[in-house]
From TrEMBL:
The lineage of its organism: Eukaryota, Metazoa, Chordata, Craniata, Vertebrata. The keyword 4Fe-4S does not apply. The keyword Transmembrane helix applies. The chain crosses the membrane at residues 172-194. This is UPK3B protein. One of its GO terms (cellular component) is membrane. Keywords: Membrane, Transmembrane, Transmembrane helix. It comes from the Eukaryota.
Amino acid sequence: LPTPPARLPYVPHVPPMALLGKVTATTFALEWPRCVFDGHADASDAVWLAVAFANASATFRNPRCRADVPPYKQLPTARSYMTLETAAAAYSCSARSPPVLRVGGDTACRDQGRQDPCNGPLPSPGPYRVKFLLMGCRGPKAETRWSEPILLRRAISPGTIDPAPTRRGSDVVVIASILASLGAVLATAVLGALGAKVWGSLCHQDLGTDAFTRRSYRTHHIPPALPQPLPPGCRCSPPGLCCSAPRPPAPCP
C-alpha cells in the first residue's frame, strides 16, 4: 500500500489585506503558501490545489498519480477537481513568488482536454473548500488542511433590477425635509450676520470721514464786519438815531 501523505498544519486562506477582486462571482484569491513544503518536496515534485464544494470535501480522495487527477469539467458531477499544478520549488522559502494566486481565473478552460490542469471560472457561489497537495512520481507526499468555507459573491440578474427609483418611507422624507429646512435657516442666519458686520464697518468708515470734514471746516476764521463811517453832515436827533441827509440851518430871527 502507498504511504499516506504527511499532514501539514498549514490552512489555506483568502489574504487578509485589501485586494482588488479578492472575491468575485467566479474567482477568489489565496495567499501563496511559501515555506510550507520545505523538507518534504524534491525537485521533480509538483504542488496541486484541490477544490471541492464545502459539503463534498470530506469525501474527497487523493489521486494516486497524475492520470487520476479529477478535471475541472467534472466539477458539477464529481463535486471536486484539482488545478494549478506548479513545481514545488516555486513554493520554497527562497523562491521569489507573487503574494497571491487566483482560483478560477482561466476563462479558456472550456476548450482544453481532460488531462490539462484547468483553472476555470467557478460555476456557482459555493461555498468551497481548498487544500494543497504535494505529489511525486509515486503519488501524494504531503497535504495541507482544508480551508474554511469560501463563499463567492452572488451576481445580480438583470431581470431582478428595478429600473424605477426606490421609494422611501414617509418618515425618511419628513426627516430629510426638516434637515433641509434647518440647513437653509442656518445659512440665512450666517449670511445675515456677515452682512450686518460688513454694513456696520462701512458706516463706521463714513462717520469718520464726515467728522474729519467738519473739523477741517471749523478751522477757517472769518473776521467780523467793521462799522461804516457816517456820511458828512449827518446828525443824530434824537441821540442814537441817524438821519439820512443834512438838515438845513434855522432862519435868523
